[in-house]
Amino acid sequence: MSKKIAATPPPIEANPRPFVYRDRLLHCDGADLTTLAAEHGTPLYVYSARHISHRLQLFKDAFAAHPHTICYAIKANSSLAILRLLAKQGAGFDIVSGGELERVRKAHKPALKKVVFSGVGKQTWEIDAALDADILLFNVESEAELHLLAARAEARSKVARFALRVNPDVFAETHPYISTGLSEHKFGIDIKAARSIYRSAKKMKWLDPAGVSVHIGSQIRKVDPFAAALTRVTSLIADLRRDGHNIRYIDAGGGLGIDYGTTAFDPAKQVAKYAAALTKGLGTESAHLLLEPGRFIIAQAGALLTRVLYVKKNGTKTFVITDAGMNDLIRPALYHAHHEIIPIKEPAKQPAGKQPLPETGENKVDVVGPVCESGDFFARDRVLPPVKPNDLLLLLDAGAYGMSQTSNYNSRPRPAELLIDGATTKLIRRRETMRDLLAPELL
Ligand SMILES: Cc1ncc(COP(=O)(O)O)c(C=O)c1O
Ligand SMILES: N[C@@H](CCCC[NH3+])C(=O)O
């Protein structure tokens, strides 16, 4: 289902997000969000195709000097329409499950050739499916997995290209739940042990040691840890090449962060800094570079639209209760993540020195969902303009790890997703119904 939009959006460089006020109402690339909420209901995810493509292009431009493939990390947002959009612009994919492999197959089959497969717990059927699909590279995370890969490749008389995902023991400043590059983390293989594992892999006929991979975590804003990790990887690659391995790929992983706040953020500068750091880490070692960005591509292109159900006071607190809950966007509950929340109607400018807040009556509010947990919040003690029931709010930067981390907790149906693509609005996923909710149960 798609619909034409009349208005033209402002130039993309003006705002790292596609959401702007026009005639005092919020728009996404020319589409008015009030109308979209009325037509499609809330909660509703809205994405801008233009902004997604723009971010991919920024990555391509920043790495133009290196032979590279951008393998978008599907886990950030696995909507088929978004995968198709990226694949048509040349992207490959980083997958972590058989399910994500099937998504690539369904979205754009030729892109299977540009798939890298990461993850510490690959199962036999997933390895088999990836071998049959002839993916580009297995990022192997343990010796046991390497042996399983060798056995499955042999059973199919098929060569498996692999990279060991090494754990470089590099600290990346981010939330502890999404930091992955320290030796205490479950990810990868100790970089010191890698050389001897490559040596033994050389004896296995159906394995092709084609690369080395690393991924140190997510939402990393400073680029030095990326350079440090890659320096360790390239020193290993020099050793491996001396040992006679034909290493053609360096997979530098993903993890480049964005600004979830309101400080000036220039994505082009950020990715250029990132590219410079990786180039520094590469030194004189060259190989085809694989990059696995997720959040940087999709986070700011998307937002979650929700309607206020109730405003109430408990003690000194004022609660704004929305129709979206932690099952629709879990990042604040899980990581205490900050998402800007803006009203769909542009707040009237308050006269200096006055604070008329008739609806909420308080400057600071907690924005919470309907789920039966106190952890079900989107913001605590947040200063918001006056808010009343039926108002619409937009939770910004929810394009990454938003929809892909939704659940049916409290038996709540998952929201719909809209893609604003040029002059059209496309419903890319319909809202779940009660029938969808009950479908898998065998009674
Ligand atoms: C192996 C791997 N690659 C890529 C990514 C994407 O990370 P981000 O969305 O931070 O770019 C992740 C998630 O952290 C990951 O685990
Ligand atoms: N889910 C996390 C990112 C996880 C990255 C996965 N490797 C977030 O919302 O920030």
UniProtKB/TrEMBL annotation:
Keywords: Amino-acid biosynthesis, Decarboxylase, Lyase, Lysine biosynthesis, Pyridoxal phosphate. Homodimer. Substrate binds at R295, R331, Y335, E373, Y401. It catalyses: meso-2,6-diaminopimelate + H(+) = L-lysine + CO2. It comes from the Bacteria. Residues 50-299 form the Orn/DAP/Arg decarboxylase 2 N-terminal domain. The keyword Cell membrane does not apply. This is Diaminopimelate decarboxylase. PROSITE patterns: ODR_DC_2_1, ODR_DC_2_2. The keyword Membrane does not apply. GO terms for molecular function: diaminopimelate decarboxylase activity; pyridoxal phosphate binding. The lineage of its organism: Bacteria, Pseudomonadati, Acidobacteriota, Terriglobia, Terriglobales. Pfam families: Orn_Arg_deC_N, Orn_DAP_Arg_deC. Residues 45-399 form the Orn/DAP/Arg decarboxylase 2 C-terminal domain. Belongs to the Orn/Lys/Arg decarboxylase class-II family. LysA subfamily. NCBIfam families: lysA. It is an enzyme of class 4 (lyase). InterPro entries: Ala_racemase/Decarboxylase_C, DAP_deCOOHase_LysA, De-COase2_C, De-COase2_CS, De-COase2_N, De-COase2_pyr-phos_BS, Orn/DAP/Arg_de-COase, PLP-binding_barrel. Pathway: Amino-acid biosynthesis; L-lysine biosynthesis via DAP pathway; L-lysine from DL-2,6-diaminopimelate: step 1/1. Its EC number is 4.1.1.20. Pyridoxal 5'-phosphate binds at G255, E292, P293, G294, R295, Y401. The active site is at C372 (proton donor). GO terms for biological process: lysine biosynthetic process via diaminopimelate. The gene is lysA. Specifically catalyzes the decarboxylation of meso-diaminopimelate (meso-DAP) to L-lysine.
